[in-house]
Amino acid sequence: MQKSKSSSANLTSNTKTLSTSSQHPNSSSTTLFYQLLSKLSLLSHLNPLFVFLLLITSVGVFGSVIKYLSESSHQISSSPLSSQPNALPSATVQLSKEYIYAGSRLLAVEDANASAIPPADLAVWRPSSGFWFILSSDSSQQTYQPWGSSDDLPVPADYDGDGRTDFCVFRPSSSTWWVMRSSDASYYSVNFGQSGDVPIGADFDGDGRSDIGVYRSGTWHVRLSSEGRVMSREFGLVGDEVEAGGGEEF
Description:
The chain is 30% helix and 26% strand. By secondary structure, the chain is α+β, with helices and mostly antiparallel strands. The longest helix is centred in the N-terminal third of the chain and has 50 residues, at 28-77.
């Protein structure tokens, strides 16, 4: 009976010792617990500040990235190559058309970049025989055409408006013009002028056809092909050499 009480007392004493030992501040378990609690308490105090600083830093980094991407996009869009990815010129040249009018009359339709004036041929008129000799500028082919007599004056020009020069002579003895059309090889005659006049063939009214005209002692007399009337104008002095400009502006 005494021994049982002693054992019970020892058990109670051991239990108190264990309980007291578990609450002792110098024990290793208690020290680790308090250290962990202290760190968690410190983290709980620093966490709002840390989150705020992290948020500010993230916003700054995000803004820098957006600015960099925006500047890069602007540089690419402002590059001259970006707006013209195929900057090489096209091998096919598209020519626009030009419509040439004389008043309300359409004379020709031509390419804007093409030469509107065909190459000129070499030509001579031989009064002794009345023959014209022509050397083509395109093929170097020689042709000849009898038209006129020894007393005639050559006045070649485009009287039918087909873009080619017609054979023409002025015969002072009868004041007659003899014209062979290049368009159909037909011919006609016109009485205009008098002996001593200087014959002139040029497009004075701008209708695409050369007009018949003469220069007489400082006065020009021109039969306009567009109206059929005669225009007279004083210009020049007796003895002046006549130059009509080929029907074009100087």
